[in-house]
């Protein structure tokens, strides 16, 4: 297989703390440094949340702006993807950074259960976020926690409600949502191939199953996500020393399946994104 594999690194999220793993980057400087190391290891996309200095989640557009500036400076061409997820804010605050015009932004198009709460994505909020992404020419990465989210994304894209090329990420392993299940994964892939053949897809595994989902995605010809947001361990006995270590682990799987690692320029072409300035 010669199709390049895009590796996305989810650098921090809003849940893991430095008490869980000292390698989790919190401050803007830590996040930029961690992203740069992951970029050097082969990551073409940086999936970004921001935090306050005390580590709590933030939706402050100024923090997103500073982080984006640092990534552009130190990781030339890397695709910047901001999170509009519900852990960092509520309502319109979730899209407050979209006027910064990142290359991409995550978009959840349905609700589901999380470990201790309902991850609410009501239709009016989904429509507003999608509209803001169209307004500012931001390509969404659909975060699909359930089969219905994949079908909803395909419908929305066919109706012109999503900007740019369709890109769907299967998120598997969140407690109370879709588990890591090979039959389900294979069905997701088949649905994408049959109903959205021009689209690209990737997959993310949460927790200890991260490496398993990385391998499934790479072997099946998709793209994949790794990073300390999703998983803080290399194995049950060892914490991951960095985001870069998790990217290198995914890169080793690319070599195993003869998949070239996509450069940022190749990733932009695959995803229909403009060349970096």
Give a written overview of the molecule.
By secondary structure, this protein is of the alpha/beta class. The chain has one domain (7-270): Alpha-Beta Barrel (TIM Barrel), CATH 3.20.20.70. The protein has eight helices and 14 strands. It has helices at 28-41, 61-74, 123-135, 147-158, 182-195, 210-219, 243-256, 264-270, and strands at 7-10, 45-48, 50-51, 57-58, 79-82, 104-107, 112-113, 118-119, 139-144, 167-172, 200-205, 223-226, 233-235, 238-239. Strand 1 (7-10), helix 1 and strand 2 form a beta-alpha-beta unit. Helix 1 runs parallel beside helix 2. The radius of gyration is 17 Å and the shape is globular.
Topology:
Blueprint: E1 7-10, H1 28-41, E2 45-48, E3 50-51, E4 57-58, H2 61-74, E5 79-82, E6 104-107, E7 112-113, E8 118-119, H3 123-135, E9 139-144, H4 147-158, E10 167-172, H5 182-195, E11 200-205, H6 210-219, E12 223-226, E13 233-235, E14 238-239, H7 243-256, H8 264-270
Parallel strand pairs: 1-2, 1-12, 2-5, 5-6, 6-9, 9-10, 10-11, 11-12
Antiparallel strand pairs: 3-4, 7-8, 13-14
Q: Top keywords for this entry?
A:
single chain, 277 residues, alpha/beta, TIM Barrel, eight-stranded parallel barrel, two-stranded antiparallel ribbon, 8 helices
Oligomer: single chain
Radius of gyration: 17 Å
Note the total helix count.
Answer: 8
Task: Quote the distance from N terminus to C terminus.
Answer: 30 Å
User: Which stretches of 5+ consecutive residues score pLDDT under 50?
Assistant: none
Our count of domains comes out at: 1
Mean pLDDT: 97
Strand order of the largest sheet: 1-2-5-6-9-10-11-12
- What is the class in the CATH system? Alpha Beta
